[in-house]
## 1
Amino acid sequence: MRGLLRTLKGLLKGRRTFEVPIIATVVGGHTGRRDDYKGNVTSIIRLNPDFPQEVLQGIEEFSHIQVVWPFHNGSPTDVALHARSPRDNPAWPATGTFVHHNHRRPARIAVSYPKLLRVDGLDLHVVDLDADDGTPIIDLVAVFTQFLPRGRITQPTWPGEMLKDYWTDSKERP
């Protein structure tokens, strides 16, 4: 373990870092760090109480928000700076660290696009946020279609195979 930490520190040595504030916390929703069956789960993004309510003025006119959050249950020892098969499935090709959408990347940051159901004071009620209950939120913003990827999006077949049940209704979880 110490050797792994030393190696990771060596690889990241000299890289700059910065701190970001925690602006909100996820209340309710997912628990247990599950990989799939994330669909149709409602949760609340509760902004810190020191924010004035006007920080959300106009957000209810948007259908979706972009939420940035850390994989806070992970640790630096979870980071995998090498190619590996997604979900350790040898049927899928080994891919590099920055191909994976999980806590094993150096910054351990995730981005989600939940549907905004309603705003109640400093609480944003959302559906399809894949962050767990208690997750700190470091940023959120209304989704503008103009900032979504332009042009045709391409990918190999394995992400579709791997994520076929990702947004399946959580009530169908085995």
## 2
Amino acid sequence: MRINAFSDVCLRALMLLCAAPEGELFTTRAIADGVGTPYNHVSKAVLKLRSLGLVDAVRGRGGGVRISAAGRQVTVGTLLRELDGREDMVDCGSAGSNGRGCPMNTSCGLRGALRRAREAFYRELDDVVVSTLPHESQMAPVFVTLHTRSPA
């Protein structure tokens, strides 16, 4: 199982914000620098995380984003379910070389099996809280790069 690039960016951004000192604000540009991802990707991720209530945004000069209470408690499984907009893992209805969908689409057992496998993947991650993932040795160099203080 593999998560998509958008989910990866969202997880990285949340991990950075979880590791930050309590209440510290980060610009989207600083988050992009900290997680090694282009600004426009991080900007979209932050908008989505905000719409999910996982980050708080402060507007204006000196503003930025910080982790919310819900963001500190969200599990990886819950977050990935929210971010995964796909109904099916395979696109059985897309036109193939024959101009129609998959000829084996009728009563196919693959779609159900893949759906169950994806749910098992998420269930395995339901006990992993995002805020427990970052650790000092991992995050200290990031905060040095961002010219901010490391959490105590």
